[in-house]
Hints:
By secondary structure, the chain is an alpha+beta fold. The protein has helices at about 15-30, 45-50, 90-95, 110-120, 130-140, 140-160, 160-165, 170-185, 270-290, 300-310; strands at about 35-40, 55-60, 65-70, 80-85, 100-105, 125-130, 205-210, 245-250, 250-255, 260, 265, 330, 340, 355-360, 360-365, 370, 375-380, 380-385, 395.
Amino acid sequence: MHPVDYNHTILLSHDELTRRQERVRSLMKADASHPDALLITDYANIFYLTGRVFAGQIYLPLEGEMICFVRRPVDLEGDGTVRIRKPEEMAQTIGLNAPARLGLELDITAWSAVKRLSAVFPEAEIINASPIMRMARAVKTDLEIEMVRRSGVAHEEVYSRIPRLYSEGMTDLQLQVEIERESRLKGCLGMFRISGTSMETFMGSLIAGDNADAPSPYDFAMGGAGLDPSLPVGANDSTILPGNTVMVDLNGNFTGYMTDMSRVYSLGEISELARKAHQCSIDIHRMIAKAAVPGTPAKALYEMAMELVKERGLENYYMGHRQQAGFIGHGVGIEINELPVIAPRSRDIIERNNVIALEPKFVIPHTGPVGIENTYRVTDTGLECLTNSPEEIISLI
């Protein structure tokens, strides 16, 4: 294996880069807007196309070589790298090859940046490239799956140590801090990438007891009051009490590609209703793992799970109690909220090498949250689990 040249802008191998470019270009050709080129600014998409993050833009034409316009860091070099101080300098390089239809990431780019980038190519029709990039990243290459798999192994090792981190009288915050410390020492990057503005968090959440029933403004399955109105989600520094469950849903980003995993711990005996709901979550996982083959509508998986929940009389606790989430799964990779989305109105179709976090969860009043979340790879015969920690409720004492 050749040593990595970290001063080279593109850290991906030639073959890996080609696979990713071909994926994006095939979607450009299929898109109704027919873009001639994409101009990528978002850090997650830059990472996808180069294997690193830099400040600047990537110009990816439908035909021809990709160009990396780099402002920072100043030491990057290599084929296709062009140093710029401001976006307006890109026009000098592209010159007469300026596109007639240029794709920008309109879903996530600030309006002021869109105006400035549009002015660089005044003759180009501006179209939205965000759906193209989201669909491209939804189907992982073998290398990307290996990166997710490596994160999963580290994630499992951290969770295996959780019972030893608990001490009598701990608050939810104190336990979360100990797990975060263990995770960071294990190599967790700490970065929890989220696309858009629907949610924000710090290294995930740990929720115990009735705090799980506190509604949150964010698009999470579990809420939690948090520590301050500026970030109203997750642990609220309440003491973990006998009869409480504790759900750990913390950061699995060890490689730039995340796993998403939730496990439940308990302090003493918990209600039979909580155990029944937890088993229902496990049964949903088993059922969907068999059913989620390529070509399956994502909404069909949601409906299948809901049918089982209603059959067992648990719908009042499903995906929340006072406030319920409207999905049970989502794509995961560079960001935590990728495609496909498993929801009742989803138009997504399951594809081979999607990586999906499945999280059918329940909130039981006066007990807390139950249910599991696993990250899976879609294969031709169903789902392969990439987060293989024990799934039963584990006692903290």
